[in-house]
Amino acid sequence: MKFTVNRTAFIKELNDVSRAITSKTTIPVLTGLKLVAEADGLTLTGSDADISIQTTLSIADEAAALSIEKTGAIVLPARFFSDIVKQLPEQQMTIEIVAGFQTMITSGSASFTINGLDANSYPHLPEITAANSVTIGADMLRQIISQTVIAVSNQESRPILTGVHFSLNEKTFLAVATDSHRLAQRTETLSTDNTSVADVIIPGKSLNELAKMLENVEEVELRITDNQVLFILGKTLFYSRLLEGNYPDTTRLIPKESDTLITFNATELLAAINRASLLSHESRNNVVKLLISESGAKITGNSPDVGRVEEELHVKKQEGNELEISFNPDYMKDALRSFGNIDIEVSFTVPLRPFTLKPVDNGDSFIQLITPVRTF
C-alpha cells in the first residue's frame, strides 16, 4: 500500500472516524485505525464494537489531492498515528507499507515508521440493506437528539434507559428518553410517506457522537436491522448497536390535564434557576422551590451553610390553583436549554406529581417532564 494525500482533507476524515476509537477496549485491533487503499479511493474505519464509523476519500476529490500508487490495507495505532499526522510539517503526506506491517509516514523532511496490524484481523462491518430505511433532514435529526438525549440514564443498572427510544411509522417519528426522574419526548411529522416501521433503542452515547457529525450534512438516511442501526451521512457511514429489550410505556407518565398553568420565557427562567442553583448546589439535597400564588411566581433556594436566595419571576400568563413545588434545578436547566429563547408553558397537577414543559406555539410535539422532589 502506498498513497499520497492532502493532510488537511485527511485530518478532517480522521477526526470523524476517531470518534469511534477508544483505548478502553478488550480487542487490541480496535485501538487502531483501519486504512484501505483501493483504485478509486481511500477508506478509513474506526470502531469500539458499539459504534463504528467509516468514511471514504475519493481520488475524484480535488481538495484531497489523493494519489494511490499501490493498493492495500493496514491497521495503525490510532492515537500515535493521529498525533503524528497532525504534527507533520507539509501539506502533502505519503503513507507506505515498507515491510510486513511496518508503515512509513513521510511529509517534507519528516519521516516516521510505526508498527501496524493485519487488516484481515479487523472485524467486518455489518451489511445493512435499504429494505427498512427512512431519510430525514440532518438539522431535524440533530435537534431531536439534543432535545431528548439529555434525559437518558447514566446508570448501567437499567441499561435500557441509557438509550433513546426511536419509533417510526408511515407519518411520524417519535423519540423519547427517560431516566425515571425526567423525560424528554419529541414528535415529528415526516414530510413524505415513510414505508418503514421501526421500534428501536439507540444508546445515548452513540447519538451524542452522531450529533457532532451532522453540521455540514443536509440529509441522513437511517437503515435498521435487528441489532444495528446505520446512519448514512453522504460518504460517511455511522453504525451503532441497538439496546435489547422493551422500552417502558412512557405515555402514561405524561399528565393529560393540569390544575395550574403558567407561561415563562425559557431563557429568562433558565437565568433565574441558574442564580438559584448557585446556593442549592452547596446543599446536600440540591433542591430549589417554586411558589405560585395569586400575586405571581417566586423561586427560592436555600443552603443552611451558605444562605438563601429568593427571586420574583417574570410571568407571561398564569391560571389555575396556587402551588408550592420543589425540584432538582439541574434537571430543570437541561430541559430549559433544549427550548432556546421561546415562551414555554409549564403545567402542574399537584406538588408531588410530575410537571411538564412545552413550547407555547408547538402543541404536544415537544414535551419535557420533570419529577418533583419531596422535601418533607
List the helices and strands and how they pair.
Elements: E1 2-6, H1 7-18, E2 32-38, E3 41-47, E4 51-58, E5 67-70, E6 72-77, H2 78-87, E7 92-99, E8 102-107, E9 110-115, E10 133-137, H3 138-148, E11 163-168, E12 172-178, E13 182-189, E14 198-203, H4 204-211, E15 219-224, E16 228-233, E17 236-241, E18 260-265, H5 266-280, E19 288-293, E20 296-303, E21 307-313, E22 317-320, E23 323-327, H6 329-337, E24 343-348, E25 355-359, E26 366-370
Antiparallel strand pairs: 1-5, 1-7, 2-3, 2-6, 3-4, 4-17, 7-8, 8-9, 10-15, 11-12, 11-14, 12-13, 13-26, 15-16, 16-17, 18-22, 18-24, 19-20, 19-23, 20-21, 24-25, 25-26
Helix pairs in contact: 1-2, 3-4, 5-6
Subcellular location: Cytoplasm
Pfam family, one: DNA_pol3_beta_3
GO molecular function: DNA-directed DNA polymerase activity
Write structural notes for this entry.
This protein has 376 residues and is an alpha+beta fold. The protein folds into 3 domains: 120 residues, DNA Polymerase III, Chain A, domain 2 (Roll), CATH 3.10.150.10; 112 residues, Roll (DNA Polymerase III, Chain A, domain 2), CATH 3.10.150.10; 117 residues, Proliferating Cell Nuclear Antigen. It is built from 6 helices and 26 strands. Strands 14-11-12-13-26-25-24-18-22 form a 9-stranded antiparallel β-sheet. Strands 6-2-3-4-17-16-15-10 form an 8-stranded antiparallel β-sheet. Helix 3 packs across helix 4. The radius of gyration is 25 Å and the shape is elongated. The termini are far apart. The mean pLDDT is 92.
